Structure formats: C-alpha cells, structure tokens
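Practice set, problem 2.
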Amino acid sequence: MGNDDLRSWYLALTNSGKQIFLACVSHDLTLHGRSAGLYLSGEKQARTVLGLNDLQHQISGHIRNLGLGCDTKPDDTFLDLLIDEAGRFGLTARLRQSLEFARSRDLWQALKKPGVEN
C-alpha cells in the first residue's frame, strides 16, 4: 500500500469500521468510473472500466465477508491485492485518491463517540 500510516490506521479499525471505510472507498471509485465513461474512449475506457469493476468486486466481496463473519483474506493481503490490481490496470493513483478520501471523512470523529463502535 505504500502509505504505512494509512495501512496502520486501516488495520486498527474494527470489522465494522473496515466495512464503513471500504464502502466509502467503493463509493468514491464509482466517481472515477463515471468520469471514465464520460471522458475516455476506446481501449483506455474499456481498460479503466474493467479495472474499476475488478476493484469494486474485490471491495464488495470483502465488505460482505466482514459482515457475515466469513473467512476473509487477511487485511494486509487484501490491501496488497487492491494495490496490485489497481496497478495492473493503471489505476493506482485513482485507488490511492479514494483511500485517502475515505480516510479524510468527518464521520471517523463521530464514530469515536462513546457507545459507537468503529
């Protein structure tokens, strides 16, 4: 993942917090998909959309497994998988932007209030 601070922060979240974080990442990635649909064409558009779809598939599956309490990939492995997949499709910068955006949301302070699990 490269950014050790972001990695450490993510790994310290509870499963519920990880679900919320990953849902925020996924939501932000959809904006990149919309942009690709509007401003790219041909092979570049197809490659970007395929890569974003793959990232969405990995993220949504991990959210589902966290919620169900199923065996999931270890968090470090999952984060590495996302970075590798993003790199394969030339989407590393977009994924990193979405990860940073999700972490920057104000909701994390609200979740730290007593009685609210994060």
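Problem 2, part (b): a different protein.
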Amino acid sequence: MTPEERFEQIEATLQSVSNRLDILTKIHLDSDREWRERMDRSQQEWRERMERDGREWRERMGRIEAAIAQDAEHIRALAVNTVQAADAIARLARIAERHEERLDDLEGTA
C-alpha cells in the first residue's frame, strides 16, 4: 500500500468516525432536549398539582374551621341551656319542698 493509499484510507476512516460522531452528537442533543422538555412538563405538572392540592387543602381547612365555629356556637348555646335547665330544676325543687312542707303542715293540723 502506497503512502497515498494509506493516507486516503486514514482520511476515509476519519471521515467515517467524524460522521458517526456527528450522528451520536445529534442523538445525544436530541435526547437531552427531549429529556429537558419532559422534565419541564413534569415540573409544571407537579407545580399545578401542588397548587391544586394546596387549594383543596385550604378549602377543606376552611370547611373544617367553619364546622368548628358552628360546633362552638352549639356548645355555647348548650351551656346556656344547661344553666337555664339547672336553674329551673333548682326552682322546681324549692317549689316541691314548699309543697311538701305545706302538705306536712296540713296533715299535722288534720
């Protein structure tokens, strides 16, 4: 093989390697671009999900807080009613005691 033929063979090999390297570079860049696009979409979906979940959580917490406030009102009303009922029972007990005393007095005089 002459030096010129050897040079041409090396040049052809280098050209082949260069072409393959160009192809691999393009494949790598395309793959990297696709990966970045997928990651961007994934991050956007994650942000949207977190925002939606946060909004849902805040709505649920609002409903829970409203229910707690309503329960507190009911408990306050129940406490007032309980005090009123206890007062009424105490008055009725005094009335019953007086009636019993009057009955005892009536029975004692008869």
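Answer key, part (b): Helices lie at 3-109. The chain has a mean pLDDT of 93.
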